[in-house]
Design goal:
single chain, alpha+beta, 7 strands, 170 residues
Length: 170
């Protein structure tokens, strides 16, 4: 089965998409005794990889159709510490898309207790890997993305979307 066929046959993911439960790796804990900031991104990126499989743009898509995505912009908020032993899960909202870009918002939560640890808002670009330049998604993938954006548009938006980095107002 090709990735194009697989994308058509995939069931639409839940809205929002919920990743598998992940565990903190011991080498990710920094000298402050909590998850180092870089590994929040690693965990959210692993969750994005799970959603990309549902979109039909995972590793098989890269191999067969020579397309992939690169992150163009990322804004992470660190809200509550995560420690070794804490199970985590990422919720992803596919907020929007056009012919070449995806706009996502991720929430990293403690999988057992449900509290919010971090958020990440991202713009990803579709890349033609033969030229390594931004390129439109193929029509079948674009249609699947549009379907999922529409499903995700029906759920309430989480707090924090569209925030910018700035000093607090006095």
């Amino acid at each position: 089965m090709t990735s194009a066929t697989a994308a058509r046959d995939l069931k639409l993911p839940t809205a929002p998409f919920v990743s598998s439960v992940m565990q903190i790796e011991p080498q990710w804990i920094d000298y402050n005794g909590h998850l180092n900031m870089a590994y929040y991104n690693v965990m959210m990126d692993r969750a994005i990889d799970e959603l990309w499989l549902q979109l039909g743009i995972g590793p098989a898509y890269k191999k067969e159709r020579h397309g992939s995505t690169f992150t163009a912009e990322c804004h992470v908020r660190y809200l509550q510490e995560i420690h070794l032993g804490d199970p985590v899960q990422v919720t992803i909202y596919l907020l929007g898309a056009d012919e070449k870009r995806l706009h996502t918002f991720e929430e990293l939560r403690h999988a057992g207790e449900g509290w919010l640890s971090a958020t990440s808002e991202n713009i990803s670009l579709h890349i033609d890997m033969t030229t390594r330049k931004v390129a439109p998604f193929p029509p079948d993938i674009r249609a699947r993305i549009a379907d999922i954006v529409n499903v995700h548009a029906a759920v309430p938006r989480p707090e924090g979307i569209g925030r910018k980095v700035a000093m607090p107002a006095k």
